Amino acid sequence: MDDDLRERVEREAEKHALLNAVKYESDADVGAVMGPLMGENPDFRPHGDEIPGVVGGVVARVNDLSTEEKRDRLADLAPAELAEIEAEDEEDEHDLPDLPHVDDYDEVRMRAAPNPNGPWHIGHARMPAVIGTYKERYDGSFVVRFDDTDPETKRPDLAAYDAILADIDYLGFEPDEVIVASDRLETYYEHARELIDAGGAYTCSCSGETFSDLKNSGEACPHREKDAETVREEFEAMVDGAYDSGEMVLRVRTDIEHKNPALRDWVAFRMIDTPHPREEASEYRCWPMLDFQSGVDDHLTGVTHIIRGIDLQDSAKRQRFVYDYFDWEYPEVIHWGHVQVDAYDVKLSTSTLKEKIDAGELDGWDDPRAPTLKSLRRRGIRGEAVVDALIGLGTSTSNVDLSMSSIYAANRELVDDDAERYFLVRDGERFDVEGGPDAGHPPLHPDHEERGERTIPAADGVLLEPDDVPAPGERVWLKGYACVRREASGDAEAAGDGTGADGGSLVATDDGIEVVRGVDADVVHWVPAADNVDVRMRTPDGDVGGVAEPDFGATSVDDVIQFERIGFARVDDHGAAESVTYWTHP
């Protein structure tokens, strides 16, 4: 092998060694380098006996480089290949699939279209979580459109508009535009008039039952062939409120013999006598159906990609008839299945939750037993954790199960480092402590000695949880204090009631930490018998009472802390009679 060939081998071997190391984030391997090296350079094959030795030396030098040095060197030798690896890495980081045909659009523009009939439950959060994530990936736009054009059966709640925007903010996203459909009735009327003029709609006074029979048999409604002028006059009468509810509708002319009866001449506008709760819309009586209103708004607001439930496939098919009449391009559509959430006995339904609140079965939308975002926020669960868990579900067309444990795991990573530690004892049993120090001093956080220690008095006795009370003669380690042995005497020993001075004492021993390591003594939490803080902890399973160590009283409202061996909790209130916390998760 001459010098020129050796130089070529070394140069090519270095490139492939770097590609191997950077792609797999590990040391390069001679065997992995030899294959592509010889494949790309057939003229090296006559020197096959010598090349492995040359490659071995190159690989050793590459493996001596740091990760950053390897990337920098590869950027010099093979920038295109490095860019390809980085693109693959970026794609691998995404839980969500790429949106279809994004290169066909100047900007990716997506919308969440909530019905403002109440604050959001956990299932509602999936849409803004996914749309907000796509917005960030594609540097696109996120539109919130309140679809509130049904003032009767899905009656809007005036407080829900701001509540939903607050929920979106809690999840960590900010809409680029907020639209209220009930502000846009005149826009829908104008497009209805254009549709009538194009021969795409007609007024119909058939009863619902009559039209259903005709539709299901593939027969045309007798009003279908009205002239455009009559249709226009009757539609204007609808707009003026001249008809009663159910007396007249405007239908989109489709295919009365379409194989799917649900697509046959569907209703675009109907009369509703119930006034809209928003004062700005309270005078209107002619209201668009959701498929018409939503279809028009998606086009006018430039929506490029729609995500909707798999059960709404017919909506896209209905709207395409309107789009064809107007010669509009229909957005890309992604359908997905429904989300089911474990750990709750309450159905994921805004109307069901509202009924339970009205009946007093739930204290409100932020009751810890309610599967709502307001509840999660009050419990100290960060919106980022909810988004991470929901993004992990992907966009499958199958129904998916969201485990609350996935939200808890994501939130634990976010709060653990900041959460100070405290003791809380439920149903405590009292014991005097003899022979030990006056107080225990466990750390505020086991990973941050610099934050200092808590002071937990022990001189006037301690409280232990019933499951932690040792049998007479047995030892436990009071965390942050010392090892103690339970001693009992007289009748109290026979009764084993553990009631302190009358039932025995805990006597400090000289044992070191090795008794814990040897599993001879359990480590337990404890609180002072006298100097403590009454606590009510609200949980999804109901309220729990207990007492906390005195330093807990110095925490601030909204602090997320950890009651050791119990779980994380958010501090909600420090009252004169008790402190209130909301259980976050284990």
TrEMBL record:
The Glutamyl/glutaminyl-tRNA synthetase class Ib catalytic domain covers 107-414
Query: What processes in GO biological process is this protein linked to?
Result: glutamyl-tRNA aminoacylation
Q: Which GO terms describe its cellular component?
A: cytoplasm
Reaction(s) catalysed (UniProt annotation): tRNA(Glu) + L-glutamate + ATP = L-glutamyl-tRNA(Glu) + AMP + diphosphate
What does the UniProt keyword field contain? Aminoacyl-tRNA synthetase, ATP-binding, Cytoplasm, Ligase, Nucleotide-binding, Protein biosynthesis
Gene3D superfamilies per UniProt: 2.40.240.100, HUPs (3.40.50.620), Ribosomal Protein L25, Chain P (2.40.240.10)
SUPFAM superfamilies, from UniProt? Nucleotidylyl transferase (SSF52374), Ribosomal protein L25-like (SSF50715)
Tell me if Nucleotide-binding is a UniProt keyword of this record: yes
**E.C. number(s) listed in UniProt:** 6.1.1.17
Family annotation (InterPro entries): Gln/Glu-tRNA_Ligase, Glu-tRNA-synth_arc/euk, Glu/Gln-tRNA-synth, Glu/Gln-tRNA-synth_Ib_cat-dom, Glu/Gln-tRNA-synth_Ib_codon-bd, Rbsml_bL25/Gln-tRNA_synth_N, Ribosomal_bL25/Gln-tRNA_synth, Rossmann-like_a/b/a_fold
Carries keyword Repeat?
no
Q: Where is the Glutamyl/glutaminyl-tRNA synthetase class Ib anti-codon binding domain?
A: 419-488
Q: Where in the cell is it found?
A: Cytoplasm
Q: Domain tRNA synthetases class I (E and Q) anti-codon binding spans what residues?
A: 523-572
Record motif 'HIGH' region, residues = 114-124
Q: Which GO terms describe its molecular function?
A: ATP binding; glutamate-tRNA ligase activity
Pfam families reported in the protein's UniProt record: tRNA-synt_1c, tRNA-synt_1c_C, tRNA-synt_1c_C2
PANTHER family per the UniProt record, alphabetical: GLUTAMATE--TRNA LIGASE, GLUTAMINE-TRNA LIGASE
- Which HAMAP family did the record assign? Glu_tRNA_synth_type2
What's the stated role of this polypeptide?
Answer: Catalyzes the attachment of glutamate to tRNA(Glu) in a two-step reaction: glutamate is first activated by ATP to form Glu-AMP and then transferred to the acceptor end of tRNA(Glu).
Q: What family is this protein classified in?
A: Belongs to the class-I aminoacyl-tRNA synthetase family. Glutamate--tRNA ligase type 2 subfamily.
User: What name has this protein been given in UniProt?
Assistant: Glutamate--tRNA ligase
Source species, please?
Halobellus litoreus
Q: Which gene encodes it?
A: gltX
